[in-house]
UniProtKB/TrEMBL annotation:
<protein>
    <recommendedName>
        <fullName>N-acetyltransferase domain-containing protein</fullName>
    </recommendedName>
</protein>
<dbReference type="InterPro" id="IPR036527">
    <property type="entry name" value="SCP2_sterol-bd_dom_sf"/>
</dbReference>
<dbReference type="Pfam" id="PF13527">
    <property type="entry name" value="Acetyltransf_9"/>
</dbReference>
<dbReference type="InterPro" id="IPR016181">
    <property type="entry name" value="Acyl_CoA_acyltransferase"/>
</dbReference>
<dbReference type="InterPro" id="IPR000182">
    <property type="entry name" value="GNAT_dom"/>
</dbReference>
<dbReference type="InterPro" id="IPR051554">
    <property type="entry name" value="Acetyltransferase_Eis"/>
</dbReference>
<feature type="domain" description="N-acetyltransferase">
    <location>
        <begin position="1"/>
        <end position="81"/>
    </location>
</feature>
């Protein structure tokens, strides 16, 4: 989460043999996962959920995937640059890790990974996914593209580029992969954060070469954004320990407060169940305590607190349970501390 590091546990697979379903097996497994995370001092549990199941164990939505459809002809209409594209190898782990950290490391939801982990991922993914890198004229790695399995060749799970030329080389490589196929897709799909500069570059440069059949310009596109949401069915998280979560995110809360122009001073107590943590603000300083003497006391559910941390909902939604009429200054302070839309889970971090 920005400069903060949150200790988490991730649930990868939950499966019950068909002959033993609806006998409490999955419930026992989920309860054991919570006990495991608690005993190992994890603040959160994270999983990619199936519909209408995990919410009963305290999980809630924290991230909606955004995907961009890009018109293939708009990509091919661009003049090719002088960047080269080649398949990556485990020996490329160092520059690939640097690219990953530079582009995704500041998002809530990216994972800390070592160089050894990066090498392992490259070796593991070689049998399941296809990854290529863009090299500048000097041979320096300037971007990479992670493609999904052969059953979905039109979809890129992860894309990184330091500049437009690197991005264009990756897009054109992806577009040419479909040359000669019987069913050539009209568009290619890219999972990208809405705040990524790569989205802006595509909007600024890509144009459909033939618009003669367009009916109305404002409903046509060269780049089309889609956001996928189904309640309790996607990326979900569960609060494990409230005080340790606030302690973990404190460095990022302090950074955010130092960057604001707000001048409010005071204390705000956040209460989740029977536990309370108080945020103290004075000048540019922000710290935590177990004191509950603050004049502003906000009762929240574990799910609301989790969604606030991930920036999934604005502060006004997260505080609806308190039924308090907060002053403009307090609301502005909380908005600066818990902004929306800062979460992105890169494709290489998905199972």
């Amino acid at each position: 989460m920005g400069v903060a590091r949150i200790p988490m546990a991730c649930v990868s697979v939950v499966f019950t043999h068909p002959a033993f379903r609806k006998q409490g097996v999955a419930t026992a497994l989920m309860q054991d996962a919570i006990a495991f995370a608690t005993s190992h001092q994890r603040s959160l549990l994270l999983l990619d959920g199936i519909p209408k199941f995990y919410y009963r164990y305290g999980y809630t939505d924290v991230f909606d995937l955004s995907s961009y459809q890009v018109d293939r002809n708009a990509i091919l209409a661009q003049a090719a640059g002088n960047y080269a594209v080649r398949t990556v190898t485990p020996e490329d782990a160092t520059p690939l890790l640097a690219l990953y950290e530079r582009h995704y490391g500041s998002y809530t939801g990216s994972f800390v990974r070592s160089l050894d982990q990066q090498r392992y991922m490259l070796e593991y993914q070689a049998t399941r996914r296809h990854m290529v890198a863009s090299l500048g004229p000097e041979g320096v790695m300037k971007g990479y593209l992670l493609l999904s399995a052969a059953s979905h060749p039109h979809t890129a799970l992860e894309c990184v580029a330091d500049d437009w030329e690197a991005l264009l080389s990756l897009l054109q490589y992806h577009a040419h992969l479909h040359d000669g196929l019987q069913d050539i897709p009209q568009s290619l799909h890219y999972r990208l954060p809405p705040t990524s500069p790569m989205v802006r570059w595509m909007r600024e440069h890509l144009e459909v070469p033939d618009t003669s059949e367009w009916e109305t310009g404002h409903e046509e596109w060269s780049v089309l954004r889609q956001t996928y949401h189904h309640r309790y069915a996607g990326c979900m998280a569960r609060l494990v320990h409230f005080p340790s979560l606030l302690e973990a995110v404190l460095p990022e809360l302090q950074r955010r407060w130092r960057q604001t122009l707000a001048c409010w001073e005071g204390a705000i107590t956040l209460i989740v169940g029977t536990e309370a943590v108080t945020l103290h603000i004075s000048g540019r300083r922000l710290w935590l305590s177990a004191s509950e003497e603050a004049s502003v006391r906000l009762q929240m559910s574990p799910q609301s607190l989790t969604q606030l941390v991930f920036g999934y909902v604005p502060i006004s939604w997260g505080l609806k349970e308190s039924n308090l009429a907060l002053s403009h200054e307090v609301l502005a302070a909380l908005t600066n501390l818990f902004p929306v839309d800062h979460t992105w889970i890169p494709g290489s971090d998905w199972p």
